[in-house]
Every structure is written in structure tokens, then in C-alpha cells.
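Thread: Modeling a multi-component assembly for a lab meeting

Hi all, long-time lurker, first post. My supervisor asked me to bring a structural picture of a complex we are working on to next week's group meeting, and I have zero experience with this. I have the sequence lines for every component (653 residues in total). Could someone generate the structure of the whole assembly? Inputs are pasted exactly as I received them:
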Amino acid sequence: MALIEVKDLAKIYSNEGLETIALNKASFTIDEGEFVAIMGPSGSGKSTLLHILGLLDKQTKGDYKFNGKSIENYSTEELAHIRSQQMGFIFQSFNLLPRTSVLDNVRLPLVYSGKPEKLWDKIALDAIESVGLSHRISNTPSQLSGGEQQRAAIARALVNNPRVIFADEPTGNLDSKSGRMIMETLQKLNEEKKHTIILITHETFTAEHAQRIIHIYDGEIISDEKVRIIRKANEEFHK
Amino acid sequence: MNLKYSLKIAAIGLKTNRSRSLLTILGIVIGIMSIILVMSLGKGAQDLILGEIQSMGAKVIEIHPGREPKGFSDILQMFGDSLKEKDLIALQKKENLPHAKSVEPLVFGGATAVFENEANNISIYGVGEEFMRMFSVEVNKGRSIDQDDVKNRADVVIIGSKVKEDLFGNDEAIGQKIKIKNRNFKVIGTLAKKGGGSMVNFDEVSLIPWTTAQQYIFGIKYYQEILVEAESESSVDETVQDIKITLRNSHNITDSDPEKDDFNVSTQAQAMEQVGTIMGILTMFLAAVAAISLIVGGVGIMNIMLVSVTERTREIGLRKAIGATEKDILAQFLSEAVLLTIIGGLIGIILGAFFSFIASLILSKVAGLNWTFTFPVSAALLGLGVSALIGLIFGIYPARKAALKNPIDALRYE
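Re: Modeling a multi-component assembly
Sure thing. I ran the full set together rather than chain by chain. Output:
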């Protein structure tokens, strides 16, 4: 069974009678364990699609089944619960709480998880270790580099051991070296821990870390293809 | 999310904006402080007055002319002349009032007293020989009015401490003659200083025999009051009934309909109850006025909470994205508002108690009142409850606004 299944998904914003179609007739499935990049120029509707998939927004038309159940059938409370238990988010601007330590930032999702408080520190420390930030646990975001901040954000996305991680232009605010490190971390999570990863980007070299690229333009999906072959070729070339 | 965590987050939020938080709760602090102050001082005043009434003797029953006042026309009757000599005689009969220890009339009014061209307006109380004992008043010099003075309509006077000071200054007053209504009265005693705050200020009165007062000063044949002292506090109620029966007989009021009575009987217990009620209403009224400032304070809280919600829009978006429900967000901001107002309430309670204590020190040491500092626990609990309620009422709107934010819009907020 597919983890994510969308059919004829559309998002239409109407402002004073003027309709803007942000997304139109999107249909695809994503299986558990996939690493999918959604690519497109800015304004193409890729963020809208990611937000709908991440249950942060709702489509205007079409059907979205998460884990086999249409999201229309979930209450807002259940949706929050799914976000808490099965999803992790990584944002372009990191969205760490200012003046709050890395440890506290990473612990944040545990607060809403229902897990007993005595486990919080251990889970959070494990997640921080997995992104190699153990030496920074008491630092606040302003004391970290961009790459370190994004790694803290990844650790935060990991603490509830989600089935799927949504990454919204995770390297957009980073230099290319940090960006590459973040992508390698995500790739490792996908390959070793089998987390499903859905990423949006407008950079080809970022998208190439994925196994599959969905191209979107003016709200419509224009291509959807596996890229393992391309990447393999790239790796050969770099050797 | 649990309450402990909500409070912790709220505390961190308030600490981050410490000076803003302090200024915000000022309204609540002042409001709660005023309520505590009013209630504490009100209780102190009530205790003072009740203490005074009790010291006047819980066994004393007062009979006034006119039926029990229920409206304005009844109040006029209180100055009526329905209490006459035959009533006094009837009440003094042992078979009518078996539990009465003493029965005495009381007449009073104002008059001018002159001593060596020094003229003063004074209150005259025409009393019997038991009056001073009934009301625990004592002479600090000289003697009190006795049976013979009353029988002989003697021209003798006992003056209060302030009257003595006004007329004689530091000079000896005993044995001097003062002129009241062109009649020479010999000063036979001076009253010990009692201090202000009494129902009757004994420092400012002059006592003469009631017979003298009736005949020579006021020229009346009736009494303004008849005072009955019961043997003991437990026989007060029975004596009240005996008095009613006796006076109804004496006034030919046949049926026992209190509407027809042309007299009314009051006891200290009743007076205490009335004072308690009046003081209670007054205190509640003043506290209610003070509570208006709480509404102003609450609006301040709401205002700053709205600012806080706007400032933390991205945080709200993030929390929702990582799994916070609307309830979680609501609880977070509501606990922040309630924590703010409860802290304000606590500071207000402490300040209110402090200023009430200072006031009671001034009242007792400087003004010389028999004032004791009371801090009603009920007021403190009320203050705490009210401040928490203010936090809930004025916090719910900003908290709801936060909870209902769309996570996407919130995350994108700049």
C-alpha cells in the first residue's frame, strides 16, 4: 500500500473573485522508503503541494490518502496527531525557536507526542548525535552556523521517528558545502533508517540526491521519473 | 501537553519580556491591592464599631418611640412623644419585667453651656443613676449622678473630657458652676477620655439627671428613649417580649400586630447585626468600585497578549507543524495570561495587606483609635480567584486567535 496517494489534487486561491490556480490535477503515489524531490521554479506550486502533503494545508479539489485513509476523514486534532507521530518537517529558514538551546529546540516535538517526560532528554540527545551536533546542545540558534542550525532542525524532525520527512528547500539558505552535507545527511536517513523523504527544491544538484524527481510547472506536474541512473552516472564521473 | 509544561513555557515567555510583563500586570496589581485594602480596612472598621457596641453592654435594650422604621414617615415618628411616665412606671414594675435589672429613661438634645463668657454648644444627656454603668462610662474625677440627684432634680453635671478642655482648659473643673439654659449647674465629675470612633462620643457630652433635663432644659413630658438592662444576656430576648406586652397594655394596643405599635425595641445584638450588614454592603460597594480598575487591567493584559501572539506567529506555526493541536496552543497562551494575572494578584495582595497594616498603625497610634489590623483570608482568596478569572476572561480571545492560526500563514509570517 502506498504511503501517499493523491488524485487530481488542486489548490485554487480566490481573492475578490479572482481565481489563482496554484496546483492543478496532481496525481501520483509515493511508497514508504522513497526519496522524492519535487522540482520547479518559484511560483510553480511545489510549496503548495508539499504543504498539502504535510497536512499543513488542505486541497480545494481532489483526494489525498495518507496511509490509505482519505484526509477528509480526519479531524483537525487527528491531523495534528499525524503530524506529531508520523511526519517531520525541515524548513528553508530552519524555524528554530530563538533564545532556546539546541536541546530544548529538539525536544519540542516530544512535548506534543504523549511520550513520558523522562524519556525526552535521551531521545533528543540521540537525535542530536545522529546529526553530529552533540557538542552544541546548550548553544542557542544564533550561536550556530547555518548548516548547524539546519542539522538541529533535522534532529528536531527526527525525534518522533517519523515515517516521512518533508523538507522545504532545506539547502536554500546555506552555502554549497553545508548544503551538500545536509543532503548527505538526508540521504543517509533514507538509506539507513528507511525514512521516506519528500523534498522540494529548485536546484538540480540538490534534487539529484533523490531517487525520483517530480517536475512541476505552473501548478501542473510535467514529469515524474526515477533518477538513480543519472546519479550513478554522476558518481562515476566524479570518481 | 501537560499543565506543568504550559506553565513552564509561560514563565519563560514572561521572563523574556520581564519589564513589559511587569508593566502589564500593574493594572491588576493596583486593582487587587485596592480590593484588599478596602476589605481589610472595612473589616477593621466593622470590628471597631462592633467592639464599641459590645462595650456598651450586650444586656441593654433600648426602647424608642414610633414603630420599627420601615419608611420615611416612620423615621419621623422616631422623634415622637409616645414614651411617657406611665410607660416608665409600668416597665419598672417587677411583675411586668421579671428579668430586668434596671429601667431608666433617657432624654437628650443640644444646649449652650457658658463658663466665664466662654460659650460652647454641647450635647446634653439626661440620664438616670444606672446609665454610666450600663454603657461602661466612668468618671476619672468627682462622682457620678446618684438617685438623690434624679429625685431632687439637682442642678449637677458631669462633663466629657473634650467639654472640660473646651470650657476649662487645664484648670480644675470639679466644683465650678457652668450655665446651661440660664441655669447654674455644678460640675460634680469629669469623664475619662474614651477617644473617638464610638457610636456616642462620650468625650463631647454632658450628663445631667433626666428629671432636671426634662423639666428645666428641654421642657418636655416624654422620653426620647427608655433603657432596660436585662439580668443577663440570656434573658434579653425574654425581656424584649415582656417590654412589648407591657407597652401594648399601657398604650391600649390590643392585638399583637407590630404595625400598630407606636414604639420599637432594639437590642445591641440587633444593632450589631445592622452595623454588620451596613458595613458589609459598604465594603462590597467600595470593593466593586475598586474592581473596575481590574477590568482596565484585564484589557491591558488582553492587549499585550495580542501583541505577544502576533510576535510569536512563526513559533505558533512551527508548534502546529510539529504536532501541537489547537488545544495545546490555546492552553499555552491562556496559561501565560493567567500566570500574568495571578502574579499581579499576589503582588496586589501583599501590597494591599502592607498598606492596610500601615493604615492600621496610623489609625491606632496617631488617631488613637482602638483599631486592630485584620487581614481577611477570604479577601486574599477572592483576590487570587478574581485575578485568575481576569486572566481567563481577557486571555481567551488572544489565545483563541493564536490557536486558530493557519500553520502555513503563521510559518510564512515575517
